């Protein structure tokens, strides 16, 4: 690759990062998507770039897009990009090549051994996949349960606080969508996430949306989301964008409360 082309890709990344930093504005998020997509197409082997792209796709799908088809397409794209980034990473391939068994077993066995360098890719792969599965039949969620559990348990063993208790928040949500799992497990994971990272409003919003709604705890649902709406998202600058997004989601869920608890 020529020096001029490398410089052009670096420019695309810097522009994408600039707009990503302003992602509370929908136009900025679309611009971030545009520049990072172009950079990723020219530098697909860049792990961190792929993970950022997967995160942008998730953010668009979860917080901005309204149409279910468009949302699903974004989540599928995000999970595929992050999955590819993980399974083509040298740290993954080194373990995979010495693993035994068929491809499915080797995949799970390798994930269970990967180093911390792959945590971000694993997390956004699983997060996009879970959101994609959320609207699918139960059988599809069951078919992916083992993969998701292996991924998130590996993240917990390597970096339990990743993305503000992300794996605990993930399990709290997931275990309300899998039949045969005691709801108390979901509550335990959510309490762990909130107790460790109370400043991250997403932990409370997910607990209300998944656990309290599934349990029929309307008063707790209402109280937790009202608490989020009354919070000041600017108190923690590093997560201000996410807290702003989750505050808007809390308002949306409160507006749907009567229909959610019919």
Structure keywords:
262 residues; mainly alpha; Serine Threonine Protein Phosphatase 5, Tetratricopeptide repeat; 15 helices; 76% helix
Fold blueprint:
Layout: H1 3-20, H2 26-42, H3 47-64, H4 68-87, H5 90-96, H6 103-111, H7 119-133, H8 138-143, H9 145-158, H10 162-174, H11 183-196, H12 201-215, H13 218-229, H14 240-255, H15 257-260
In short:
The protein is built from 15 helices and no strands.
Describe, in plain words, how this protein is organized in 3D.
The chain is an all-alpha fold and 262 residues long. It has a domain at 161-262: Alpha Horseshoe (Serine Threonine Protein Phosphatase 5, Tetratricopeptide repeat). The protein contains 15 helices and no strands. It is globular and about 60 Å long.
Find the structural class using helix and strand composition: mainly alpha
Number of strands: 0
- Order of H and E elements: HHHHHHHHHHHHHHH
Low-confidence stretches: none
User: Major sheet, described briefly?
Assistant: none
Radius of gyration (CA) equals 19 Å
Under CATH at level 1, the class of the domain at 161-262 stands as Mainly Alpha
Would you identify the CATH H-level superfamily of the domain at 161-262?
TRAP transporter T-component
Helix content: over 70%
Q: Treating each run of at least 4 consecutive H or I residues as one helix, how many helices? A: 15
CATH second-level architecture of the domain at 161-262: Alpha Horseshoe
Question: Cα distance, first to last residue?
Answer: 60 Å
The residue-averaged pLDDT reads 96
State which percent range the strand residues make up: under 5%
CATH topology of the domain at 161-262: Serine Threonine Protein Phosphatase 5, Tetratricopeptide repeat
Give the overall shape, derived from the CA principal axes. globular
